[in-house]
Design goal:
This protein is an all-alpha fold. Helix content is about 85%, strand content about 0%. It contains seven helices and no strands. Helix 2 crosses helix 4, helix 2 crosses helix 7 and helix 4 runs antiparallel to helix 5. The longest helix has about 30 residues.
Amino acid sequence: MLKDGLKQTLTTINAALDTKQLNNILKPVLELGMQRGYEAAYLLIVGLSEGVHSENQSAAWIDRVEHAARDDFKKLWETEQHKELDAQINSMLAEEYHAVTAHHDNQLVFESIIMPYFNGWFLGYYYALLTLISEVQAAQEANEGTLKKQVSDQAMQAVESERAKFQHQMFYQNGVLRDILSVLEKR
């Protein structure tokens, strides 16, 4: 049902689609994915650091950690990493622009919306891990290049897991689609 709603929303968008506006449509979806990935990384790291396993995470605990993650996510744009992050976002949006214009006849398709979400999820997870682990590693003076590679590998594994959940768990897919629809309907 949500998939049909998303397809209907895409049909409406496609009817008046100006490809010059693709970034304005896709960037909020990518940013939504980033926020969700950032929160997921926080839940993992804070859970590990506080010894709270996923099965013991109360709703109040999750709300507290997600609130902290959202606060730190907003600060991400104020750090020195924002230029690197902006470049990565622009690169991902350029890939989607190319896919829409070169492979989908200047029309948004289901994948055109889902890919930016999961690309954003990866970026959010990556930057949250990088931020949280960098704080710990700073005291140990770890090699930044090695740290970024390890964090990237971990984020890649995590986003692949999220994509698998999206493919195989209807309740997860419905949650993602509901979030994406809410972003698209705001425009």
